[in-house]
Amino acid sequence: MMPTVDHEIAGVRCAIYDSDPTRREAVVFVHGNPGPMDDWEELAPTVSAFARVIAMDMPGYGRSDHPKNFDYTIDGYGRFLGQLLDQLAVERVHLVLHDFGGPWGIRWAIDHPHRIGSITLINCGVLEGYKWHRFARLWQTPIIGELVQLTATAWGMHRALNRMNPKPLPRSFIDRVMKYADWGHKRAVLKLYRASKYVGRSLPDVGKLGGSLPACVIWGAGDPFIDVAYAEKQKRYFPLAEVHILQGLGHWPFIDDVEAVRAPLVSFLRRSVGRVG
């Protein structure tokens, strides 16, 4: 588990890992659903050897508050990320994003192009034309979504995901997710997915980031939720993107084979952190 300190961001208690608050340039890891920031526990220490590293449990996830009245939308999370970075006095940001962290982070970056130094997309990105997977469609359906969430168990989740993922996911990964899966978390998931039915049309202004942003795309080729074809498609929006397709890995490639993700990620960030222009 990553060591964290609680901060209050816009009235929400947020658990944050921050390796070096004295620096103004930071690599910022943003988890997706179901999170939490512990997804990054095998990657953050390596990156912190040469950069400030920040990770957080976003509202509704992990050790942070799971408030009823938070704005559980892509815009709401993007705004919260910005408030967090402002409070931590981060001036230049290298985003490392996964799953829903993709649209959250990109939303923030579009509104702050002068502060973004690079972007890494791990099985996420701009998903034009995206069709939702089965779990999402259930969560997006009133009453059925509530029933699915209320009856979810660690055993059932482990069994379902291992039928879909190219490699068996460790039970410890499932237990970590379920540890924080109170009703507040489940309510947050339902609200987010219902507000994001048209995620493929949620970032029409991504062109504001410009064509010169350093980008790295890392994708588990066996992802059952977001097809690997989207990996190369990210070059439409990030023309300088280097693309690494990892065969035999799934939606959580850093869980399936952390070294396969660490190698291209660290190489890219070492070239990007401190780069001017």
Name given to the CATH architecture: 3-Layer(aba) Sandwich
Low-confidence stretches: none
Which range best describes the helical content: under 10%, 10-25%, 25-40%, 40-55%, 55-70% or over 70%? 25-40%
Radius of gyration equals 17 Å
Strand order of the largest sheet: 1-2-4-3-5-6-7-8
Estimate nothing, just give the exact number of structural domains.
1
Q: What is the percentage of strand-forming residues? A: 15-25%
3D shape: globular
The H-and-E topology, N to C, reads as EEEHEHEHEHHHHHEHEHH
Mean pLDDT: 96
Major sheet details = 8 strands, mixed
Key traits:
277 residues; alpha/beta; Rossmann fold; 8-stranded mixed beta sheet; 36% helix; globular
Describe this protein's structure.
The structure is a single chain. By secondary structure, this protein is α/β, with parallel strands linked by helices. It is built from 11 helices and 8 strands. The chain has one domain (5-130, 198-272): Rossmann fold, CATH 3.40.50.1820. Strands 1-2-4-3-5-6-7-8 form an 8-stranded mixed beta sheet, with helices on both faces. Helix 1 links the parallel strand 3 (25-30) and strand 4. Helix 2 packs across helix 3 (101-111) and helix 5 runs antiparallel to helix 8. The longest helix is centred in the C-terminal third of the chain and has 15 residues, at 258-272. The mean pLDDT is 96.
